[in-house]
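LOG
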Amino acid sequence: MYEPHSDETFPLRYWFDATYYKDGGPVIVLQSGETDGTGRLPFLQKGIVYQLAKATNGIGVILEHRYYGTSFPTPDLSTENLRFLTTEQALADMAYFAKTVKFKGLEDKDLTAPKTPYIGYGGSYAGAFVAFLRVQYPDVYWGTIGSSAVTEAIIDFWRYYEPVRIYGPPECISNQQKLINIVDNILLQNDTKLIGQLKGAFKSENLTYNDDFAQVVSYPIGSWQSRNWDPEVNDPSFFDYCNNITSSFLVNNSTSNLTTTAEELIAAGGYGDQVSQLTVPMLNFINFVVTRLVESCDETLDQCYSAHNKTAYELDGLDRVDYRSWQYQYCTEYGYFQTGSGVPADQLPLISRLLTLEYNSIVCHDAFNITTPPDVDRVNKYGGFNISYPRLAFVDGEIDPWRGASPHSPLASDRPDTTDEPFILIDGAVHHWDENGRFPNETTPDLPPAPVRDTQAEEVEFVKAWLDEFYVQEQKKQSGTKKLRLQ
């Protein structure tokens, strides 16, 4: 279990597919990251793990991360028991797996590292994780691929929304900035009656805290990340929302009774000269938030959406894994607090300025009694933006909101794309678009799109080249051993 002074063990779940394995083939390990590993299982049959395993006669593996799925070292997720949840300790898990695993049905073969070449892959947090793995355990993992790898831990990650602002539909982005600015200007006036009118229009008068309300109305624009090239994986919410707030017609005629209210709110929010242009977008904005978020809440709005819900934070059973594990990780090591307050003063944010570091950190204090900022040095010691190592690849999406925390960040130094250290930016792609795939009989000339298809093909080729290096090295070792014996 690690952490100082513990030699106890726990079950770390994994799945594998040896369909294409032939003697001497590699083991391709996908780190599932901050989620239940079962969600990654399709990649054994389609997507990058399948493609790499098939092309290299390898074994494909999905490896679950400690404190996710069913891989728990402790009986609950109390703050005391979360002390075993650190990047450093989880990296040791993945290294230990490669050095000790015995695959069912292949027990007669030694498929452990470093005798067998291990290639790691991960997307997002898991992408950064396998990049750190290559740096920390270079003798265990022969190479790794970090897709959308967030290698730079950042406390105030206001830049998360920059790709959305830059690449999103211009009219949608402009309207979003204005509508959120109207909300902010009203909330920051501290006019109780006016704020009540605003929250009432969104049927959110029972949402106690204004910053929680600001969070709710900011949610829809965040669906940009969930876009995907595969229609079966894609979440259409972002463009549904954009179509709503740019439409010249009411999406729901029942909101017409709020026309006067919308006009008054627009004027009170500082856009009196644009009332005629913004009234329909405002009404459609209200309708979207009410129908998608407010009316979907089966409890009180505070229970559904409040960051000030101390009662919920006191729950620490394993059934709270979808909340506590990753919250603990970003509170202790990663940050990535997506604020509106951090956006430069001369730029209108896409989310409310009431979403500050203090607001985002409520969970850290109330759930874990953490009162200091995340210790990002524990992550950035591996290299941050500039992390580099032989046979370490980075694959990013051009319009990924997480690009700003990756080696492809505009803040990072440019670097060449080589076989030894591939550095690939997928045109028009969002978040680790190279990870998923389709069955051969489902592919079309346009699916996967050419940039994704070409990237996956390039990944296959450079992994093959890496493996050639391994096999040449092993042959030299064996040749040297034989010569020694002859002497």
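LOG (cont.) second protein
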Amino acid sequence: MSTTLLRTTTTCTTTTRAALRASVPKSAHLAAGLSFTRTKVTLPDLPYAYTALEPSISGAIMELHHAKHHQTYVTSYNAASAQLATATAAGDVAAALALQPLLNFHGGGHVNHSLFWENLAPASQGGGEPPRGPLAKAIESTYGSYENLKGVVEKALAGVQGSGWAWVVRDTVTGGVGVRTYANQDPVVGQFRPLLGIDAWEHAYYLQYQNRKADYFKAIWDVVNWAAAEKRYEQSG
């Protein structure tokens, strides 16, 4: 996981803080020697070109999605965090509470998208290859096959009303894998750990697929980076 997610503020909400902690390995926290000091979050660099995921995802969508939409979450989270710091210093509890929805939404947007970029890769970097190792066995144990899991995820994505995400998650209580949907930019926290997320917001596909979002849900598997999900699975055990 990118260390970008570690560079957040002490004023983040409980939900967003939990998402930030859950999204990085424990070793990263120890190596960085950080405990969420007051610094700004930043837009992570992509490990591939905007055009690298074509034809599954066009370069135009990737640039808009990363440079504009994700940047907006970063900018807005930092602005809300600064306002919260001011309100907290002034002892203005009402103002601090009023900022919580903004912090959750934009902080969640930053966390979710940072994970999403790592969930994708061109074929030259392993994109489209099926899961392997313990994660593959867990998927087969729960769903019977990788193809069955894909069908479950696509059905979950199709059921997202408005904006949201579908995630393959690991249940920290049972140890099993499952598929869950989250509205808007709500991050995966608490009992579950995010393994693989697919963005169902229109800005993730509309320029290319328009109203054919089911085609996007199928095409994205050709650039899914299961190696990143496998690492998260191992770290969540």
